[in-house]
Amino acid sequence: MLNFGNNQMTQRVFSGFRPTGKQHIGNYLGAIQNWVSLQDEYDCVYCVVDIHALTTLETTEALREDIYEMVLDWLAAGIDPEKSIVFVQSHVPQVMELHTLFSMVTPLSWLLRVPTFKEKVKMQPHNVNYGLVGYPVLMTADIALYKGEVVPVGEDQLPHLELAREIVRRFNSLYGFVFPEPQAKLTSFPLVLGLDGVQKMSKSCNNHIEIAAPPQEILERVMTAVTDPARRYRSDPGHPDICNIFRLHKFFTPERVDEIARECRRSGIGCVDCKQMLAQSISSALEPFRQRRAAVIAKPNYVAEVLADGANQADAIAKETMEEVKEKMKLLQRAKLPVR
Ligand code: TRP
């Protein structure tokens, strides 16, 4: 049995991801890969943050499917529900309760200067909702409810983590110690560019390769990728340092990067050869994921069972934390009233 109780010896990792459906290699290199490797060293809690998604979603039509497909990819990529808690944020509603309590110790001025908030205001001026301002408070509640100490995230989330530390510090000093201060753990891969070589790899830019993609689709997608624009004919020497295909080779063909760079510079290989090689490397790297994905799909209800177990485990931790919070805050606890 895993020890997710209070006297845990191992530090707890908490991370969340918005439900974005099928995952791509940018998600894998930037986040999932890291989550998988942390499982052996920490008590990990991985959460599908569906409530956070509501701050920007225009419709929830695809929400259920997106949750399912994302969790399927997590499992395919090696998130192991025997080792980690995998659950959906809204299944443990105490997070919204803690969010409300935290909102009373968070000055509005802290929230208004968060860079992601300012960006969102620019991106969706027609929908600057109350939840959007509170986004980092809800994120703090996520981490704190499960007493997360280590939070693997990308660089863009650092201001949120800074704020999370300030909020729990304020809570602890007002009411007494309850929450450890969460530390960010940066993922080892910086930004993964999309096939256009310009923007971050993302579904919305349609410049991505899904981790569940079959080999033929990987090849077709890689073939559309932009390479070194200065290389117009096969006989032109290439510049691997500015080529996005080469960047991807570094991830997927690490054992041959020197050779590829050399051959590209002396026009020993052309872009088509180079892309075919990359498609091959990506395909073989993702082969075990495709197999595991198929095995998971073959077990009816497996994803649902994983999420149900995850919610039960998360629930137990959440109950304990909320009791502690209410005790420290001197709220009158309903659970301590006589049963009538
Ligand atoms: N804000 C994170 C993102 O957009 C998602 C998130 C929500 C999260 N709650 C979290 C990440 C708690 C880490 C910990 O990527």
Which structural traits does this protein have?
340 residues, mainly alpha, 5 strands, binds tryptophan, 14 helices
Entry summary:
With 340 residues, the chain is mainly alpha-helical.
Shape: elongated
Instruction: Please work out how many helical segments DSSP would assign.
Output: 14
Computed over alpha carbons, the radius of gyration is 23 Å
Mean pLDDT: 94
Distance between the termini: 37 Å
Percent of sequence in beta strands: 5-15%
- The ordered H/E elements are EHEHHEHHHHHEHEHHHHH
Poorly predicted regions are none
Structural class computed from helices and strand pairing:
mainly alpha
Bound molecules: tryptophan
Quaternary structure classification:
single chain
Q: Fraction of residues in helices? A: 40-55%
Strand order of the largest sheet: 1-2-3
**Main beta-sheet annotation:** 3 strands, parallel
- Number of extended strands: 5
Helices and strands in order, then pairings?
Elements (H helix, E strand, L loop, with lengths): L11 E6 L7 H14 L4 E6 L1 H4 L9 H15 L7 E4 L5 H10 L4 H5 L2 H9 L6 H4 L1 H11 L4 E4 L4 H18 L7 E4 L28 H9 L20 H9 L4 H9 L5 H28 L3 H28 L11
Parallel strand pairs: 1-2, 2-3, 4-5
